[in-house]
User: Fold these one by one.
Assistant:
Number 1:
Amino acid sequence: MEHDDRFDNLEHLGEWSLEDENQDIRGSELVDRSGLLIGIIEEMIVDLAQEEVVAVRLEDRQACGVEHLEIEDQQVFYRPAPLMGAERPRFSS
């Protein structure tokens, strides 16, 4: 996985609340489909204007757009090809 610098200047979720707390994946392992650990999700990055999470930042500071993430059975998988039409987690103040 390569760092995606589109998200370097956006805000992190911080004190904002997700509309669906089950979508809070901070602290989760990000793995590829073969089970190889890519990293631990440290933060969720938000677009304040859209009020949605647009990326995650890993402990090593790499960023990954949510269009590459798939959450199944409490596991977070990375897919190199974006998932079209995937719902982005929404948040509120």
Number 2:
Amino acid sequence: MRQSRYIKTLFEPSCCQNRNGKILTLPFFYSEDMRSPAQPPTPSINWEEFNLTALPDPVQLDNIKAQLDLVLLALETLTGIGSDAILSAAALLNLESAIQDRVNLWRLRSSNPLRKSQGGRKKLDVEEARSLVLIICHLAKQHQELIRRAVALLEQMTEQNRAPHQAALLGDYLDAFSNKYVERMEEGENLSPDSLAHLALKLMIDLLFYSSKGGHRRLWLALLGKTKK
């Protein structure tokens, strides 16, 4: 099974879980800068924040590809956006040299080593990786209100000891994420429903952080941190 090194890191305890694996309530991880209404972002890129002391090796880049594709999958299934929104964000942020068109985007995402069909290139360069980081965080900020509402709903369901599926918004998200994951990823059919739900909810909470101020830096550092494990 190839699940091991790519997906394993996504199931490790994060800042939004306690030692028993229970998702913590919002006061523990929900900062004030995430509560303010999302404002239309002004494209401004500080490329110095993406400087690397050493370029990731091919294995690390494969890991980054897998993680970015999964974050995009969570964002798509929660907000309902598609490739048009991703390409529009690329144009707005002047990143068209890295994300040129629908075919280029498809090939880039299909090169995720977790996918059933790897029709894209076998490598992801650093320029493409950081461009995807900026696009993800731009779109997450645009949909911050919805993401925040979903996380608040998850907190409410947790406090009431109710299953997330019992809330319509979360249930629809979990079903859509699970269906797309099983359809696209090699290991989809080998993961239990609970594991898929855990992955989907963790990615959803991560999106809240990425939608906040400095979200692109949070995501970039998270990617680099996982590649070092």
Number 3:
Amino acid sequence: MVGIIISILIGCVAGYAGSKLFSGSSNGLLMNLIIGIIGGFIGNFVFGLLGLGMEGIVWSIVSATIGAIILLWVISLIKK
């Protein structure tokens, strides 16, 4: 149960940070959560392909934030 709560918090932080870094604005709490969680999967996948990976909360936030930025970039390409 604690792991799920931590994952949700990391997703919110990563989604918020990704939104701020990519577009300069927030997308709302629920959308930030969804972006952050999907971004976490994308970030872990990309860093896994590169052979990079660490453990810990900070690394999880960094990885999910970079994944969220990648997700937001792909969404912006699709919207064009």
